Amino acid sequence: MIAFYIYFDFADAFLNIRQRLPALYRLFEYIKSCLLVYIGFQAVICFVLADWHPAIYEAAFSIIRALLAIAGFYAIYELLKLKDIVSRYFVAGTLFIQIGSLISQAFSLIKPVDDLTGPFWTISLAYLQLGVVLELICFSLGLSYGQRQIAIRHAIMEQELAREREQRRREHLEAELSVQRLEQENTEVHIRALQVQVNPHFLFNSLNVLDSLIDDDPEQARVFLEELSTVYRYLLRSNKEQLTDLASELAFIQSYFNLLRTRHGSGLQLSVQVDEAYLTYQLPPLTLQLLVENAVKHNSVLPDQPLVIAIATDEEAQLSVRNNIQRKTIRVASNGVGLSNILAKYQMLGQPVPIIQEIDGQFVVTLSLISSLELRSQ
Fold it and tell me: What CATH number belongs to 217-377?
């Protein structure tokens, strides 16, 4: 009888009867209570009462078995309402144990004492055991199928989660790329704005020089104007680029220097010592022009005290622009466009900030040149 008690709990755990068939679950709970009462009753008969009453014992046992058989067939009827494969296996197992139990009970009524020396089909207990074996086979198949379905559902859920994670990862990457594109576009806009900021600054200074030359030397003014148009074409072209190669920048600064020499003559000198290996390296356009202009603006330019501007590279791919310091006696107002413009460009490009120093009477600005390898890695 304890086996029947366990069977009801197993059925609930196996098929979730409590949720799927609540009426049948309540019946199972009632039968379990009756089984506990019956077991207690049998214990009293066997161990408490002094006299043995076989008739009472057998009658109670037969009644309980009959009630359990009825309950079993009712359970089969209710379980057939469940259409899943696992429930079918459970119903088949229950049916086998019910049939085996009924045949065994019928044999017990016909032949109370089994002849254990005869064939097995004449022994009532054999049918009960056969029903138990078939029940266990069905339950095992049902459990196996149920576990397989759980594994399949788990695998499907894992795949869906993996797809969801991959989708989220892609969305995250796309969002990061969008942010990077926006940042890059924003950087380009800022750089363009800085370059446009240079154009009028350079133009106004050049026009001031031209204005002076028109009165002093009209022929030189004409040559200056031709040089100015050449320089300004480069300047307009530079607005379309974030970076330019060092060779182009040096060619431009030579033309720009010729404009300055037109006015200052031997009072201004330019020295260029650049390793040819670095001519393909990159830097922001107009960087050298801003530094040369800054040097001329803040220092005296005299034939007997020339302003010497030196442009050179070192082994660490750094470009230095230096000039001897000979500040003007009348301090020139500075709007801060030149050096701050260069610093801002390097910061926006994610490059090391230029180093500005005064060393032994020299004003030195050291810039990092950008290799093509660095550009590809960005």
Answer: 3.30.565.10
